[in-house]
Amino acid sequence: MDQSDSPPLKASSMDNVVRAMCYLVLVQKNRMSQNDTCIYDGEDTKFKIDYESNTYNIYQFLNNHPGGVNYVKPYESKDVAQPMRRYDHSKAAYYLLKEYQQGGRKKDEDDLERLVDWNKPMLSQVGKLGTKYSEWVISPVDRRLRLFDSDLLEYLTITPWYVVPMIWIPIIIYLAVIGTKKYIHITKDASPFIPVVLSISEGIVLWTLIEYSLHRWVFHMEPSGKSKSMIYFHFAIHGLHHKVPFDSRRLVFPPFPAAIITFTIYKLTSLFFCDSTHLLVIAGGLLGKSSSICIDNLSQVPIIHT
Ligand code: HEM
């Protein structure tokens, strides 16, 4: 049988988790690799495709397509069942497709969105998903997410990426200056340039390891569904990125919880680093974190929204 005629491959649940994890990375990678000619610039706000005798308007998704807009462009007004199968799209991709169904998403039995009310704040609802949470959270939708009922709390969780350098760069400079003075004061070193640079680099390496560990063991854990607090925690710190990957207001960690994490790391690392270099290591860690966020966002191309 021709590969293109074969039914969608059934991935194991582990496959789906791994693919969902790669999803955000693919979206970023695709945006970074696109050049101007790749951007969908159709004047119409419709880009219709067919899939299994239903019609979908995927206009608002085109420039977010993790494979790049050029793969999808030739299929305007055509059936995409075969090309989607050919590229072995995940369960998440087919789930996302439902978002764009003409006449609105079908609330059938398989639709996990019927378990929550998108007109209400989401954080208070995720706990009740129980064992369904893990599947729901890696099934993406193309919507804006409201977390809290309170406008103030909601406002505090919305973070455009440029807030990160605005807040953290002055703090990094302050820590680097104070840290250098402290280093000179303690060591009486008259030429501190190399030790200062090495300590800041140490901080960058340390942050890379912490970030990897957080993603590997905390952000991508699978809550069993038995503990509501674990579900709330997972959704608030990372799950929401998988649920609403295109909500650009929620791609970076808000400064307030980031400050709490930074303070905890500061206290913990004070046990391992000597007094003379500790502040410089922290400055390096914050530099690593802030620059990775800025590089990620500055290298994105504009996204067309309807
Ligand atoms: C119309 C024909 C399409 C073609 C030829 C196509 C092609 C591709 C390719 C080549 C990739 C892999 C990107 C990589 O590994 O870097 C990809 C990924 C992806 N595509 Fe498509 N695509 C099509 C339509 C769609 C549609 C309609 C949707 C959903 C609305 C979709 C959602 C995704 C998603 C979510 C991924 C990430 C990987 C995954 O979860 O499967 N694609 N696509």
From TrEMBL:
Membrane topology label: Multi-pass membrane protein
InterPro entries, per the entry: Cyt_B5-like_heme/steroid-bd (IPR001199), Cyt_B5-like_heme/steroid_sf (IPR036400), Cyt_B5_heme-BS (IPR018506), Scs7 (IPR014430)
One MF annotation (Gene Ontology) recorded for this entry: heme binding
Domain of life where this protein originates: Eukaryota
Subcellular location: Endoplasmic reticulum membrane
Cellular-component GO terms for this entry: endoplasmic reticulum membrane
Transmembrane regions listed in the UniProt entry: 152-178, 190-210
Keywords recorded for this protein, A-Z: Endoplasmic reticulum, Heme, Iron, Lipid metabolism, Membrane, Metal-binding, Oxidoreductase, Transmembrane, Transmembrane helix
BP GO terms, sorted: fatty acid metabolic process
Record domain Cytochrome b5 heme-binding: where: 24-106
The protein's name in its UniProt record: Cytochrome b5 heme-binding domain-containing protein
Organism: Acanthoscelides obtectus
